[in-house]
Amino acid sequence: VLPVGGIKEKILAAKRAGIKEIILSGDNRKDIEDIDSRYTKGMRFSYVNEMIEVVQHALLKEKVANALKVA
Hints:
Layout lengths: L6 H10 L4 E5 L3 H5 L3 H4 L3 E5 L2 H8 L2 H10 L1
Parallel strand pairs: 1-2
């Protein structure tokens, strides 16, 4: 999982859209720490380094096992 740019703008757009949970590359953690907390308040960030972690965060736990069987 690679880092992306424009994190502040993406976070603001997500907040306006009502999205409260964000999955980001572990390398983007510093970008979130640099954003004023009033913009990130009420949001939950998960930092991942491997694609399997994305699947684990994005899917319901009971469905992760089935998704991994398919892969």
